[in-house]
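User: Predict the complex with DGJ.
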Amino acid sequence: MFILNTKGTTYCFEITKSGHLEHLYYGKKIHPDAAALREKDYVAPGNTITYDSSIKEMTLEYKRLEFSSYGKGDIREPFIEVINPDGSLTSDFLFKDAVISKGKPDLEILPSSYDEKGDTEHLCVILKDEGYNLTLELHYYVFEDCDVITRNARFINDSKETVILKRLLSTQLDFISDKLSFTTFNGAWANEMNKNTATVNGGKIINSSNIGASSNRSNPFVMIHAVDAAEDYGKCYGINLIYSGNHYECFERTSHSLYRFVSGINPCGFSFEITPGSDFVSPESVMTFSDKGFNGMSLNMHEFVREHIVRGNWKKKERPVLLNSWEACYFDLNEKKMLKLAKEAKDVGAELFVMDDGWFGNRDDDTKALGDWDENLKKLPGGLSGLGRKIKALGLDFGIWVEPEMVNTCSSLYYLHPDWTLEIPSHKHSEGRNQRVLDLSKSEVCDFIIEKMSSVFSSAEISYVKWDMNRIFSDAYSQGFDKNRQQEIPHRYMLGLYRVMKTLTERFPDILFEGCASGGNRFDLGILCYFPQIWASDNTDASCRAAIQTGYSYGYPQSTISAHVSNCPNHQTLRNTSIETRFNIAAFGILGYELNLCDISDAEKEAIAAQIAVYKANRALLQFGHFYRGAINENEFEWTVADADSNRAVGLKFIRLKRANDGLKYYHARGLLENARYHFTNRVTPINVKIFGDLVNSIAPVHVKQGSIMHDVVSRIVKFSTEKDDGYFYGDMLMEAGYLMKQDFVGTGFTEGMRVFTDFGSAMYFIEREDV
Ligand code: DGJ
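Assistant: Here is the predicted structure with DGJ placed in the model:
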């Protein structure tokens, strides 16, 4: 029996008489015994295949397996599918050997987890299909401290003939259970990470992407859990894939209560020719388990991502507060505008100025110039270096936007290299955002990107790069590549991209790279192996962001989730939310601002300066603390970030729509020590009297017409503040009973001190241990 133990979990399997690997258990840590855990069969049930007539009870269809191949009686989702030299699709991999070693090797051409301390244990199980002389290696890596086990597979063609790999997945988990739910995170552009839960009673649910990126449609992170699991209780498995391309997660249930989960590269549109002596390595899959609900699971995942995925100089470094030019001026930028914006950014306390799209070639809109990465000297007379120097002189770091994987047909690059794109020669191309995908399966294209980007990044004092990717694949055909092997292209593209990202991040270790793909179209662990943070969504609306960031939080820590405060009405929803709520929500990620600071009121500028000061004072906690979701429903959100020692925490209560006379509202903290006393306060901010509209007349000595100059004057003179909370409370009470928030404005009069939540109201709480 193979037993893989982490601090709190056990994973085990054994070799059957037939040489298969029977999965025995994955869950809370136990003292496993195969005699109790293994299936005790005597005969094959009717209408099933007996694998070997000398082992009458051996029916692969009814076994929990570590991996499954096609054609020998297991009719569920296979883990591997091979077209053998004789055309047969049947595989029969049986146990040969196992090797245990220490340390976490890199997967080399693919991004993978790492372990600086070298504590990780590695189990490699070697299986052989003797009939065709093919080898399959299953690799398991045990990250004891964060309760994570990762898996991947390697297929080796030891035969003398070429075979076609139709699928090689990364993990398979078989369970026997009465009922399990499957949660996926689905969406679209500007509407990422909606949590969807289904209870699978029969058949299959598939979560997958075939758009060339991990996608905003179906993130590769999924959960399998007890039907009644919730944030703080219940058994929950979290599974993710270290891959940024087409992926596949399938959850299946047979009528015998056997559940199977598989995950890996999407077999749809995939096949790979494996010549004699060569191999194929599948991406690494990440698995964790907690019996403490979704929060327990996500704490493990977050720790794993922070410690074993994100790397480099920025791994633990506090990320700067930035101002991004995109929603401030879109393509209409020039040096003068940038400097004006940057000066305002400096005044409010930002640390980094980012010039987004529009600075190169004749890029005045999204129809042209992608690929022509030379500064537009009309817009930037001093070039990137001149602007960079001036930004630096203001006391800010300087960053830029690039989209290196793409080209507009209206560009010099396309003119010079029309064969460098993914497209089918002499067939009409289906466009996306007026641009085409460069063919990163070609090494000369990758080399061009590496050299061009290297010269851009070293042409000025660039501290930050936003790496965008704004279209999905169509007509994904590599010009000049073997016509019979075009199904290799999406994966070959990823391998090319990873080489580019690795080389550039190693060449420029001090640059803070932020991934982006129309927002969250490629938010995954593959990207995070190179770029420590990702722009989570093009949607900056605070109300939408509360849900989007909640969605991400199940699988990804706050240090990876970039979030901006933008202007109102919001550019994606036309919704108005207060500047404070916009901050309160963005603060639980990597905070940035993305609005024209030159055009906003002094009061808003003051508010932003105060926000940035608060963020900086709590930045380490907000970016790297332990994140917990409290009670969350369509209308209300509760988040808490606590430090590892439970000495400090910051909390959020956000209520989307206000209802009159809505009764009592609580904020429940998380991550505190039950028996410690905490100083509990909130962030007090100014209230503009204008929110009361013409109710101002109920206190004004003269009549004030709403929207009049007089209304303005009154709003500048009459100063109200939000409610003030201040007390000393025990952790158990704050977590169990919660803090009963002050009475909200109910329409029967306002008294200073009461809470005034309009629609999209929010409060931020600070919780500090008394005795430290
Ligand atoms: C899409 C990104 O998500 C935006 O933030 C912005 O950078 C635009 N691309 C620029 O074209």
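Residues 50 and 58 are 6 Å apart (CA to CA).
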